[in-house]
Amino acid sequence: MSTVKETVEVEVPVHTAYNQWTQFEEFPNFMEGVEEITQLDDRHNHWTTKIGGTRREFDTEIVDQLPDERITWRTTSGDIQQKGTVRFQRVDDTHTRVELVMDVEPSGVAEKVADMLGTIDRRVKGDMRRFKDYIEQQGDESGAWRGRITPG
Fold it and tell me: Which fold has domain 2-137?
């Protein structure tokens, strides 16, 4: 099992960062390889990913959640075994430190090679940078973009 850790500071209040992270169905907008997340209920999500041409599906369960502070999850079934925690720390009124720590158990040969080459670590670090860009470009966690009107 490999542990991946990445921290970014985002230019939004802690409540906004936390609320955006709980919009699981928007993860494909900033997470490479995530095709779709379906929220099944308040604690369970179904993920569809495609990495290196290989499609994987799995379910996750939120096992601990403290609003504006942390979310901890684990996989419950499927092709991927992982667990992790994302923490939100208020820096000041307009800045939040977001720290992600994940334990990932590569399942197939391709995933094990990718892990040994550091691909999983780089992908998570890239996802966190894209989360920073994504949230800072938004007016709020509802998905309304600053400076333009979205249809709906």
Answer: Alpha-D-Glucose-1,6-Bisphosphate; Chain A, domain 4 (3.30.530)
